[in-house]
Amino acid sequence: MRDFLLSLLLNTLALWLVTQLYGGLFFAHGSGLGDYLLAGLIFGLANALLKPVLLLLTLPFNILTLGLFTLVVNAVILLVVAALTPLDVRGFGGALIGAILLSVISFGLNLLIGPSDRHRAR
């Protein structure tokens, strides 16, 4: 449960940071913490459930592009999140740049937090 809550908070913080740094992703004026938490939850669920299926379906493209097609899959995930939440995305290009920023920020936040209990050496 702790890992789930930590993941939710990190996703929410990463989404908030991206919306503050990049104009291609934004929440409507007056959106509150609940909107960000909802988007973080949907983003985490989409990454856990939808992303593996999309990566499997696009495996030939990923192999041909040496993994760069994963950026397109990440942009599609972000567009799905935007369709289900108050998050707005300015086109596919906005989703692509937003997905890249989101990946970099999430990576940085995960480095700051460190490994979870289940990943630590015993």
UniProtKB/TrEMBL annotation:
Pfam family, one: Phage_holin_4_2
Record key words, sorted: Membrane, Transmembrane, Transmembrane helix
Signal peptide from the UniProt entry: none
InterPro entries in the cross-refs: Phage_holin_4_2
Chain ranges passing through the membrane: 36-57, 64-85, 91-113
Name of protein: Phage holin family protein
Organism annotation: Meiothermus ruber (strain ATCC 35948 / DSM 1279 / VKM B-1258 / 21) (Thermus ruber)
Origin organism lineage: Bacteria, Thermotogati, Deinococcota, Deinococci, Thermales
